[in-house]
Design goal:
By secondary structure, the protein is α/β, with parallel strands linked by helices. The protein has one domain: Alpha-Beta Barrel (TIM Barrel). About 30% of the residues lie in helices and about 10% in strands. It contains ten helices and eight strands. Strands 4-3-2-1-5-6 form a six-stranded mixed sheet, with helices on both faces. Strands 7-8 form a two-stranded parallel ribbon. α1 runs parallel beside α2. About 45% of the residues are buried. The model has no long low-confidence stretch (mean pLDDT about 95).
């Protein structure tokens, strides 16, 4: 399992998005209005400073990052602290000359990754299926050791702190879980023992490490285990729109 300092780091500057992809890693479509956020600028600058000496690449993600209410200011902060070749943007918007932030984006980001459900080449695994519901005796240590996310994706900063995993922070926002670590310079140098409490909570509430099939993002359907369904059924817009399927454990 790769250490955090060996992976990429992303900053989720908002969880607002115009899409509702199936089994989104940011759980888009499930947040009630009081859980939607655009990251505070002072906090964002603190986050950028905390990873300024990180040797790898830094990603700016969402939600849809260009929907941040102060995206121009976000880019100014990035340029103040990071060279262009150090930071990438992941967006579902078509970034061409007609896009209103085109010139700002071109001057701020060394790479732009396009990730839209209509042009997505891969299906999405379920996340909102609690591994603990499937096996109450499951060991979080075993979950994280076999989770592909800790090998291929990265650590993350959300509006609620620094996380060992891109998915964990979103789960905590949705399910009222614990906060992440304080966003201070060098947090990414810490080993996993410092994230133990968050790992124990998040991995039990996640299905990403399990072989539970895949779903086309265009379907806009989330696969959900019964326990998580009960927690969010009254607040999730996606559930109210009936864009979900209850996962049935095989006997």
């Amino acid at each position: 399992m790769k250490e955090i300092r060996e992976r990429r780091i992303v900053i989720d500057i908002t969880n607002i998005c115009h899409n509702q992809c199936s089994n989104c890693t940011r759980l888009i479509g499930n947040y009630p209005k009081n859980k939607l956020y655009s990251m505070d600028l002072d906090y964002f600058e603190k986050a950028i400073i905390s990873v300024k000496d990180y040797p790898g690449i830094i990603g700016i993600l969402g939600g849809e990052p260009t929907l941040h209410t102060e995206f121009i200011q976000i880019c100014k902060i990035i340029r103040r602290h990071l060279p262009k070749n150090k930071v990438f943007l992941c967006t579902a918007k078509k970034i061409d000359l007609d896009f209103h932030y085109y010139h700002t984006i071109i001057h701020t980001f060394g790479k732009i990754f396009y990730d839209d459900k209509d042009n997505n080449s891969f299906d999405h695994q379920p996340i909102l299926i609690s591994s603990f519901e499937l096996d109450p005796n499951i060991d979080p240590e075993n979950i994280i050791r076999k989770c592909w996310n800790t090998e291929t994706c990265g650590a993350c900063i959300t509006n609620r702190g620094a996380w060992f995993c891109e998915v964990a922070g979103s789960l905590s926002n949705l399910l009222d879980g614990p906060d992440g670590l304080d966003v201070i310079p060098g947090w990414w140098k810490l080993d996993y023992s410092h994230f133990r409490n968050n790992m124990n909570w998040a991995c039990k509430n996640c299905g990403l490490s399990l072989d539970l099939g895949y779903r086309n993002p265009k379907e806009e359907i989330d696969d959900i285990s019964p326990g998580i369904f009960e927690k969010i059924k009254k607040s999730s817009p996606k559930i109210k729109q009936k864009k979900y399927k209850i996962f049935e454990k095989k006997s």
